Here is the input.
Amino acid sequence: GENVEQHPSTLSVQEGDSAVIKCTYSDSASNYFPWYKQELGKRPQLIIDIRSNVGEKKDQRIAVTLNKTAKHFSLHITETQPEDSAVYFCAASSRGYGQNFVFGPGTRLSVLP
Amino acid sequence: GAGVSQSPSNKVTEKGKDVELRCDPISGHTALYWYRQSLGQGLEFLIYFQGNSAPDKSGLPSDRFSAERTGGSVSTLTIQRTQQEDSAVYLCASSPGQVANYGYTFGSGTRLTVV
Here is the structure.
């Protein structure tokens, strides 16, 4: 089955700097890769996603890149703000067309003022 | 409804008692998922429903855990003879169809504490 690894587990950056979180996956059949943000005590919320036919996707300050050959994908946050502080989870669809996601273990991002 | 609704939001139960957790997905969403999140940990897959059937029960941690879904809508996760290690936030999510085409929408979760 699918296995998703995520690094780093914790990340601290100064406000205004960029943050990068990296994930690798094992199942070459996976073709959809969402990222979720979970603020303390709240539900995970989808912030961006990418499909396997695309190499990069941007939405304002956040972007995701995908390298299918190497089976890794990354989240990039530019001009970080204190409200970006949260736990971020990457995920990969399992079993090809996907009946569930396998999540990475999460990255706790702290943006320091 | 407008979002995924879970009840109760908090549940404290004594060790050995049974509990039922409820999830009401977004109207029209055919896929429903249960995950468990222990304190400070990631998201552990429990079970997935497509309509009323559960093609993937591989994540249920023991036979004390069961789930059902009726009418293609509401789902109930039941934990029998609760143990302290069952304490966690139980998250439900729903999706309009094949997850490869759509992301999940999560509910706010049920925080279960077994004392």
In short: The radius of gyration of chain B is 13 Å. The mean pLDDT of chain B is 91. Chain B touches chain A at residues 31, 33, 35, 41-43, 45, 48, 50, 55-56, 91, 98-101, 103-109 (CB under 8 Å). Chain B has no helices and eleven strands.
